[in-house]
Automatic annotation (TrEMBL):
It holds the Pfam family HD. It comes from the Bacteria. SUPFAM superfamilies: HD-domain/PDEase-like (SSF109604). Residues 11-130 form the HD/PDEase domain. This is HD domain-containing protein. InterPro entries: HD/PDEase_dom, HD_domain.
Amino acid sequence: MNQERNFTQHRGTTVYEHSIGVAYTSYFIAKHMPFSFREASLVKGALLHDYFLYDWHEKDDSHKWHGFCHPRIAMNKANADYGINPVEANIIHRHMFPLTPIPPKYKESYLVSIMDKVCAIGEMLNIRYLSKSMRIELGLD
């Protein structure tokens, strides 16, 4: 995952920081819901949801359809490097719903998909969702 520090996600946010933010906010929301989540899979899937390891901002034909293709690429890379279970695979593969038309299968997948969009909007508006102390502890500042 350290390689994600080398790629920008939205504005000045790295893919690494974005992934941490999606995992943190997904876990936070899950802990405050009246039903349970598979927390380990939720966090692992959220951390790896954008594990595609390239700069999608580069003008390159292989990145032309990034929004549609990167979930599958990230899922395959995550499985090869970390080994993922079916819930984690679904979180990663379906996080771009509804841009990609097949909906998520698990509540964990829906939550990560929603928090991915919430975090992306925050990043575009330059809103920091991690505290200064958390950013320092994670090596983001």
